[in-house]
Amino acid sequence: MTHYYVADSDGNDGYDGLAPAYVSGSNGPWKTIDYAVGQVSAGDTIHVRVGTYSETVDMSSVNV
């Protein structure tokens, strides 16, 4: 059970998604909700920071 983070302001889908804000290297939040949905497994939690996310989220890729 892992907690992941998404932030449109300082996120990057190349980061590991494990920090709510950018830390260093690749440690920081993902940029898009759709990317996050495709990375997590059953029992994981995605925390979405406040922002404007202009994307379509495909829930069919959720691994539950």
Strand content: 5-15%
User: Could you give the order of the helices and strands?
Assistant: EHE
Mean pLDDT, all residues: 93
Strand arrangement across the biggest beta sheet: 1-2
| Largest β-sheet summary | 2 strands, parallel
Topology, number of strands: 2
Spans of at least 5 consecutive residues whose pLDDT stays below 50 are none
The gyration radius over C-alpha positions equals 11 Å
Number of helices: 1
What distance lies between the first and last C-alpha atoms, to the nearest angstrom?
12 Å
Helix content: 10-25%
Shape: globular
Class by SSE composition? alpha+beta
Structure description:
The chain is of the alpha+beta class and 64 residues long. It has one helix and two strands. The chain has one helix spanning 33-39; strands spanning 3-6, 45-48. A two-stranded parallel sheet has the order 1-2. 17% of the residues are buried.
